[in-house]
Amino acid sequence: MKSIFIKVLFLGCFLIFNITFGQEKSNCTVVDNESNGVYIGKCKKGLAHGDGVFEYMNGKYMYVGKFKKGKKHGEGKLFSFIEGEKKLVKEGVWKNNKYVGKKPESKQMAYKVQKRVNIDRYTVRNIGEGNKVKFTFLQNGNRNNIEDITIIGDSGTRFSNAYNQSTSEGFENVKFPFKCRVTYRTLSKLKFQTLDVRFEILIIEPGIWDITLNN
Hints:
By secondary structure, the protein is mostly beta strands. 9% of the residues lie in helices and 59% in strands.
């Protein structure tokens, strides 16, 4: 009974792929050491290309995933059928029919800007090893004469200094992840109105961070 259910389920998957991709299995070739089998999926110039399903003729294995020029290429899963049970054998990335390993994990984001108000543009750079976060405030390429500045961080020691026509503010000896909120007031570029500025950032990766806010 279990074996019949598996076959019915498998047939249903075939029908879904056939409807979705609109390809005839007889017109699409899979290039493999054991090329005899049944393929349902996308084709290009007579070869399996794109998303598809290939069941080997021996009935023991089935590959579900990406193909390129007839070969398993890209992300996919290989299943086995043993005594009517479908089991996952491999999952990851294939290259030219060879399994090369699991899908690489996405690199964790280094930082995330959570809010920005009345800021034309900003740059965020990690310039070296350390535990410091520095803000520089510019307008039209020169020092911005900001007012009523407030910088709140969840760790570290506050510092403030001026150099080279610009002002830097920030924190030293911070612990990461580090969350910070900056607010201040500044004149617009044309000096016709006063803007309330707000910038919030979460920095995850340790380092010396140089953040420039332009108004």
